[in-house]
Structure to design on (201 residues):
C-alpha cells in the first residue's frame, strides 16, 4: 500500500513538473538576456518606456516564419511607438538547422531590414521557460507595476499564407485591447508553424 502511494505521489509530481513547463496567460513573463544580431545583449530592462512587449519566437528557415516577416515588421513599426515593441527570438539549434545560425540570423535581419531585436536563444534556455513549441509563437506581455504579465499566447493571425485573407488579426487585436485597458479576447490561440528544432527532436 505504501509503495502504491509513493508511486502515485511520484506520478502526480511528474505531472506537475510537466504542466509547469511554460507560462499561461496571467503569469509573469520570464526575463532574459540574449545576444542580438548587432552583438549587444537585450532584456526587458532595455525598454524602460515600454508598456509591454510582443515576444515572438521565430527563425530564418521556417516557411511560416518567412511568411510572417513583413507582418511582424509592420506590427513593430505600428506599435513600438505606442509602447509595444517586438522582440524576436530564434529558439532553434543551429546544429540541427544550420540556416538558423547566428551568422545567418544577422544576414537575414540585414536583408529584411528588421526594425526590432532578433535574439539568439543560445543553449535553448529561454523558449522552454515560455513553453514555445512553434515558429512563429507569440507571447504578448503587458507591464503591471514592476512585473511583465503574459496577456496573450498563440498565433499572429488566422492566415499564414495570405495576408489579404486574414479575418482575425489575433495579435494586433490583443495589442489594441491592452492599449484600451481591455482584456484581449481571445487570450489564447493555437500557434501554427514549424516545430522548434532541438537536439532531442
Amino acid at each position: 500500500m505504501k509503495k502504491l502511494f509513493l508511486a502515485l505521489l511520484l506520478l502526480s509530481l511528474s505531472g506537475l513538473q510537466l504542466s509547469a513547463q511554460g507560462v499561461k496567460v496571467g503569469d509573469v513573463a520570464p526575463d532574459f538576456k540574449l545576444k542580438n544580431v548587432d552583438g549587444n545583449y537585450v532584456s526587458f530592462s532595455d525598454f524602460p518606456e515600454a508598456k509591454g512587449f510582443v515576444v515572438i519566437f521565430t527563425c530564418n528557415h521556417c516557411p511560416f516564419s518567412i511568411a510572417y516577416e513583413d507582418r511582424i515588421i509592420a506590427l513593430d513599426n505600428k506599435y513600438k511607438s505606442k509602447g509595444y515593441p517586438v522582440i524576436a527570438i530564434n529558439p532553434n539549434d543551429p546544429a540541427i538547422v544550420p540556416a538558423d545560425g547566428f551568422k545567418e540570423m544577422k544576414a537575414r535581419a540585414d536583408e529584411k531590414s528588421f526594425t526590432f531585436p532578433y535574439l539568439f536563444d543560445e543553449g535553448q534556455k529561454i523558449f522552454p521557460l515560455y513553453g514555445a513549441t512553434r515558429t512563429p509563437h507569440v507571447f504578448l506581455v503587458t507591464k503591471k507595476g514592476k512585473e511583465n504579465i503574459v496577456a496573450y499566447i498563440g498565433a499572429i493571425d488566422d492566415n499564414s499564407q495570405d495576408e489579404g485573407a486574414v479575418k482575425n488579426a489575433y495579435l494586433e487585436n490583443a495589442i489594441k485591447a491592452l492599449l484600451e485597458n481591455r482584456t484581449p479576447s481571445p487570450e489564447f490561440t493555437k500557434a501554427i508553424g514549424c516545430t522548434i528544432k532541438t537536439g532531442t527532436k
In short: Helices lie at 2-19, 63-79, 102-112, 127-130, 170-179. The longest helix spans residues 2-19.
